[in-house]
Amino acid sequence: MxxxxxxxxxxxxxxIFSQSFTKVNQSENIQFFLKEKQEEIKTIQANFQEFTTxxxxxxxxxxxxxxxxxAPNKIxxxxxxxxxxxxxxxxxxxxxxxxxxxxxxxxxxxTSHIQGMIVGMINGDFLSNGEYSIEYFQNANNYKLxxxxxxxxMSKEIKQMNLIFNRNTGLLNQLEMVQKxxxxxxxxxxxxxxxxxxxxxxxxxx
Length: 206
Prior knowledge:
Low-confidence stretches: 1-14
Number of strands: 12
Largest sheet: 12 strands, antiparallel
Radius of gyration: 17 Å
Distance between the termini: 35 Å
Oligomer: single chain
Shape: globular
Mean pLDDT: 89
Structural class: alpha+beta
Strand order of the largest sheet: 1-8-9-10-11-12-2-3-4-5-6-7
């Protein structure tokens, strides 16, 4: 029964990606809209659901968490299911696993990379920094951007990323990463609040 419920939830979450979208060849208006909206964002507070599929997994894996952002580059990413917390306060980044800080150089490097990727998607830099080739699609409610990494190191792990932005707010509703090995990771953002005060300690302390 658990497997059926999880699969149903996953299918519902993927439904936005299966909606009919029309390809947009002249993307300047979409770029301008997203950049303009994203420049208005000073803070974000949101919950997220995470769905992971992999050829090695018997069934999709589901996780939940919270996401906080404060411009220009402060992030708190907390996956409650896996008990992983990433704190990113400018150049100071920390990764906690089950309450213990992972101080390895690899953990620092990965966390910093994730910080740069998330910040770029929030402030719109990804639209013009040359790290991705981008295809644009739209329907009545959303814009869908299909990103293919140009960076050799990233492209070894990620085949493409699909981003769904709300056409009214410009906010990122869903992010899907398609991995080279055939797996996918989908993040669905919910209860998003923007430009509300966030205590600085959220980015520095568990």
